[in-house]
Amino acid sequence: MTQSIDEIFEQVCTLIEPFNKKQVALTKESSFSMDLELDSLAVMDLLAEIEDHFDVTVPLNILPDLEKIGQVAEAIEKILRK
Amino acid sequence: MPQDLFEKFDAILSDYNQLPDDEGNPFKVSMEKVLSPTTAIINGRETILAGTNNYLGMTFNEECMQAAQDAVQNFGTGTTGSRVLNGTYDGHMLLEESLKEFYGTDGAIVFSTGYQANLGIIATMAGPKDYVVIDADSHASIYDGCAMGNATVVRFKHNDPESLDKRLGRIRRSDPEAGILVVLEGVYSMLGDQAPLRELTSISKKHNAYTLVDEAHSVGVFGETGRGVAQEQGVEDQVDFIVGTFSKSVGTVGGYCVSNHPKFEAIRLTCRPYIFTASLPPSVVASARKALKIIATTNLRTKILDNSRKLNQGLTEAGFNMGTNGESPIAAIIVDDQKTSIAFWGEMIREGVYVNLALPPATPNGYNLMRCSLSAAHSFEQIDFMLEKFSLVGKKLGIIS
Questions:
Q1: Is B157 in CB contact (< 8 Å) with chain A?
Q2: What CA–CA distance (Å, rounded) separates B194 from B186?
Q3: Domains of chain B
Q4: Which chain A residues are Cβ-neighbours of B146 within 8 angstroms?
Q5: Residue A61 is nearest to which of B152, B157, B360, comparing CB atoms?
């Protein structure tokens, strides 16, 4: 079953909530380092949650390209489509 | 104006500049004289060394020191070259034979540091079509080996068999033929926790993955003949590659990897951190070889763990929040805030006890740690002294009552 980027984005936002200590409003443009103030370790922990939720492999190799929440949703959509 | 290349370090330098400008600055500590494996002169004072990873006190072992001195006399101070050019002496070959004998493996390759062993083995072995699956709390050398190589890197939750199983299952589902290397550590250095190797290796084998175990902090400490946690847990036949270091229980410097893989020697022809660096000096090689022979038959292992239990128990009773339980040579106090942990370190060095201040991101769970590593060379009197000073400083800083 394919999911749209918007549907994936909504689910990613739910997964981010426990990491969103400052209760920042989340948009596709929200940045993990600048807006959410997550360090690379926290982003990796978040990716693990995302992997288990969508039952996909998200390799660490793509981490440098995932600065914004929208980019994560796009990456998951691409992996799910494969 | 062109970009200042160092501007990116402004934030970290600003943190650094807040450290005390005196002997309480952990980056400025230096050993003026080392008196024994457990004592040194620091800031003009005799200080107990409680954080050196010198698990068996091998740095001052007389046989090892004699072997090193003889090697300097006969072979000089250094090799000035790579193993594949002029840097292979008889000693290097003999050390690799000693490793094969110690582990009972067909192959052994010596590297110039433990860091380079992980870096080189992981980066070289796993190619563009392969996967490396690592524990989330892996040492920097493992992460760096992944970053240097071309494999797809997947990370599982620390010591969590279910998390590993899921990830290997997903990889196999999408890529049934892929080569997979699972990288584990026998003992994780910050909190001294052992990997559940029986479960983790059995899951790896279920998915036809290779396994590598880094025994840096466990060789010499665990296992009937000191081979490490894989031996202790009886799973050596499930481990394809063991990486280790000479810089802890072996008491010098250098790294290695041992394996029974029939094509293991190919590493010598392909591994850049093995080829493009100078080989270990003859004195180091000679003392490492001697130390391996001693480690295989020593009874010092029970002494380290007795020492660690005593320190861990004493610190727990004093009321400290401990990250360790005495089942490894590590004793680590968790300190709530970073500023207090830095002050704690400074007070301890003034009281004549050297420990490690370990801060995130080098620590798990964002912990600020006062980390001790025990040695078999510590006496109970020295541990009582450490406990007395920890209590004194802990009360002074209001960490314990």
A1: yes
A2: 6
A3: 7-56+299-396 (3.90.1150.10), 61-297 (3.40.640.10)
A4: 60
A5: B152
